[in-house]
Amino acid sequence: MPLPDTMFCAQQIHIPPELPDILKQFTKAAIRTQPVDVLQWSAGYFSALSRGDPLPVKDRIEMPVATQKTDTGLTQGLLKVLHKQCSHKQYVELKDLEKKWKNLCLPIEKFRAILELDPCDEKIEWIKFLALGCSSLGGSLKAAMKNVCEILTEDPEGGPARIPFDTFSYIYQYLSGLDPDHPPGERELFLATLREKSESRKNNMIGLSDFYLGKKT
Hints:
By secondary structure, the chain is mainly alpha-helical. 55% of the residues lie in helices and 5% in strands.
């Protein structure tokens, strides 16, 4: 039997004062992030909001990435979201990372393919997973390091995308070490050249221009 219609007067309806702003921020976040599955992403959004965790929200709307041979859904912007959510710990539990991955509506097959590049058991060093994700975007070491710099930098968008040399060196050695066709001698020579540049500065930072000038391929 259907329930009878209930009539309310304006005096009976109480709207929490914070509700309009919550919904406004949620709507803006959804527009910027453009989730494939709005309901799944919303669950992750409000779950993070209730815990005070970093939200699964992009900084801006991304245009399609033309360099990707197939559209896997993964983008630099989404990797940056994961970095905001996971970088507070050196190691991240795979179960927790997989949950965040799903909340961004990314295919689980892509997640597993990334982990297969450097298999691990229950957790992974976050900076290594980020590096593997960047590598899966561009397909080349040079493109991967470009993505790494643009995600990790504190420079404004469109700037030199500088990051500490030690961070650059660690990620570069890690990714190049996974490539059997990358000669160790070439890796060491390249990093030595960049180290000289970083040490000539007070901040020991390396930017994209240094990387492009220092690497020919």
